[in-house]
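## retry 2 of 3
previous attempt timed out at serialization; input unchanged, resubmitting
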Amino acid sequence: MRLLRPFVGTALLFGTAGCAFHSTATHWNGRVGTDGKPIFVKTTTNVGVNLLVILPLFGNTTIDTMLDETSGEIASQGSDHLRVIQTSAENYWHGFPPFTWILTPVITDVAVEYTPSAEELAKVAAEERAANARAAVRRDEDHSHLVPGEPRR
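## retry succeeded, writing output
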């Protein structure tokens, strides 16, 4: 069993390598971009592994591939007019030497501002209306079964 520990750790590392996480900021309190149109911001974070600190092994560890992936996500929604607002690539070769000198974790972030398509705007508006309706139902529920009293100790 003791001999399997390094292999299990390595398998977990490779199992999580190459993961991309996407999030989109869609609520701006009715504010618009510089051209007078609504804007969304899509952030993509990728976790990858380099071999010997600089050779990409797993994941999109370069800014170029991350921009390609993020712009592809935006294009799939029918949106356009991109503007890159942030990029970063962190190479954690110093994490747990000498192990991270061989297999180096890399985290790459890209944030892109874009003008959403009409379909994407409609989808977000529908989701917001549904969330507001659920909140209204919870707010208007009968809470008479809840009796204020002394806190339990």
